[in-house]
Design goal:
Order of helices and strands: EEHEHEEEEEH
Oligomer: single chain
Number of domains: 2
CATH class of the largest domain: Mainly Beta
Number of strands: 8
Number of helices: 3
Largest sheet: 5 strands, antiparallel
Structural class: alpha+beta
Radius of gyration: 18 Å
Strand content: 35-45%
CATH topology of the largest domain: SH3 type barrels
Length: about 140
C-alpha cells in the first residue's frame, strides 16, 4: 500500500501463469473480481484505490523462478552489500544456480570484462530486466506473435 496525491493505493501485480503476461482485459477482470471480494470481506479499513497491473516489460525479478524464466536477457542487479565497493551490476542473466547451498543469480557482466558472477539471492537488494529490443520481442502479447 502506498500513499500519494490520490490517497492510498493498493497495487497488485499479476500475470497469467499460462503465458507470463496479463493483457488489459485480464487486468480489468481481475480488478473487478478483487473489488467484489474486498467489498465482501473488507480487509482494509481505510479508503484506498485499487490498481491491478502486470509487472511490465522491464519487470522486477523477485522470485527464484524469475531468474530462470528470463535467462538470456539483460539485467540490472543492485546488491545489499558491495563487492570491492561496487553494488550495481549490469549483464546478461544466465539463470539460477546453487552457491553455498542457496539459490544464486548467474550473470555475464557487460562491463567489458565478460566476467561471469554469481550473486546469492539473499544478497540482492533489487534486480530487474533492462528494456531491449530482444526483451520487447520476447514479451509481445501471445496473440500478436
Amino acid at each position: 500500500m502506498t500513499t500519494g496525491e490520490m490517497g492510498r493505493t493498493l497495487q497488485i501485480m499479476a500475470e497469467d501463469p499460462a503465458t507470463g503476461q496479463l493483457v488489459v482485459d485480464q487486468c480489468a477482470a481481475l480488478s473487478r473480481d478483487i473489488s467484489e471480494l474486498f467489498d465482501e470481506v473488507d480487509p482494509i479499513e481505510e479508503e484506498y484505490n485499487l490498481e491491478v497491473s502486470s509487472p511490465g516489460i522491464d519487470r522486477p525479478l523477485t522470485r527464484p523462478k524469475d531468474f530462470t524464466l528470463w535467462a538470456g536477457h539483460k539485467t540490472k542487479v543492485a546488491l545489499i552489500e558491495g563487492i570491492d565497493g561496487r553494488k550495481k551490476f549490469v549483464g546478461t542473466l544466465l539463470g539460477l544456480t546453487q552457491e553455498g547451498g542457496e539459490d544464486a543469480a548467474k550473470i555475464k557482466l557487460d562491463d567489458g570484462s565478460d566476467a561471469v558472477m554469481t550473486f546469492p539471492l539473499s544478497d540482492i537488494h533489487s534486480a530487474k530486466l533492462v528494456l531491449t529490443d530482444e526483451l520487447i520481442a520476447a514479451t509481445q502479447p501471445k496473440s500478436l506473435n
